[in-house]
Amino acid sequence: PENTTVAEVEMGYQLSKSSYITANIYDIVNKHAIVYYTDVNNEDSYSNLGKTGTRGAEIEYKYKGRNGYATLNYSFYSALGKNCVDVYKVEAHPEVLTAFPAHKINASAGIKLSNHLVLNPSLSFMSERFYSLDMDSATTATYKLNPAIFGNIYLNFSNVFTEGFNLNIGCDNITNEKIL
């Protein structure tokens, strides 16, 4: 089995009747991590491949009013000294894991346009990310994705035609960033 140990401290403060802020720090260790990969025969495999983990911090501000809500958060993590799983390693960057940005900022909102219509825009900033591709059985190439901003927008119609039937129309990645 995979065993996970999590240590986390979270604090929050209500700034006003309609807004609050929370912050946390954490440390996560996975022993005998179950990892998916493709083997030398290009077959799907799962194995326990060692120890991995991260430590980091997050902060979030939330506002909720009569006509909507807004959320802004920032998160940071580091895998430095915690990751021993080769599949997750990024050459020359031991502080990050494959595909995951070390820094991320998210902003989202729900704007009430009527009793049955809500506009939901969101933006996400991700710092640089890395991924690897096997070039052949002996060579792996590591690639960097530059920092990116992803934008989404949705229009949510509630109780369309009947009570409890909701319809969502929207667009993901309106900034057309490369998603890995």
SSE blueprint and pairings:
Layout: E1 3-16, E2 19-31, E3 34-38, E4 44-48, E5 52-65, E6 68-78, E7 103-114, E8 117-126, E9 129-134, E10 140-145, E11 148-157, E12 167-171
Structure overview:
The chain is built from no helices and twelve strands. The chain is mainly beta. The strands form three sheets. Strands 1-2-5-6-7-8-11-12 form an eight-stranded antiparallel sheet, with no helix packed on it. Strands 3-4 form a two-stranded antiparallel sheet. A hairpin with a 2-residue loop joins β5 and β6.
Tag the structure with descriptive keywords.
180 residues; mainly beta; two-stranded antiparallel ribbon; 0% helix; 62% strand; globular
